[in-house]
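Hi X.,

You mentioned you wanted examples for the new student's onboarding notes, showing what a folding record looks like when two proteins sit in one file. Here is a clean example. The first protein comes first, with its sequence line followed by its structure tokens.
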Amino acid sequence: MSRLKVLLVDDEEEFVTTLSERMALKGVEPETAFSGDDALARVAERPPDIVVLDVVMPGLNGFDVLREIKRILPHIPVILLTGRGSTRDGIEGMRQGAFDYLMKPVDIEDLLAKINEAVNHT
């Protein structure tokens, strides 16, 4: 069985790099993108099993990226990360097709549980 491919998208490079390293130790195959444009290119080149996507990014924000992913590959689940301390963005993202949302900072075990739930739900 192949490892779960997760695309982590966030403009905070240190956060994404650390999260990626921790996920790899847990048996996940992480790939990283530091912008919305980069994320969309990676999805088009090599579709992941799931996308973990920050809401607030310069350029294309998480909602823009979510809409485009759902347009081109609607079967890929997307989990949003929001660091604003408000659930408004998460709820809006779910309305637009996200599987769920988590608040930053995110616990790695909680994120992995949500990833498994999303992948097994589809």
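Then the second protein repeats the pattern, sequence line and then tokens:
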Amino acid sequence: MLITTTPTIEGHRIIEYKGIVTGETIIGANFWKDIKASIRDIVGGRSGSYERVLVEARETSLNEMAQRAQAMGANAVVAVDIDYETVGQNGSMLMVSTSGTAVVIG
């Protein structure tokens, strides 16, 4: 499954548009990650634990979107948009949503 943020795929022709597909993931960060991140805020540096959560959420959302596209008979998704939001009490959860257009390319 080819997934791209561009509206076309170089070297391929879009034969059929199947429709909009989405993927959503909401994932929480635990108490220890919050403490570690707070310390990082004070002393500086990157928060590896939060970065891993972010990567996991993004990959899960993209995989969900790809599965939905495949179920529609598509072999690619174009014009993909990835959005990040915090949700829940005090922004304790991360939501990653992806959307794009499922297509058949030749």
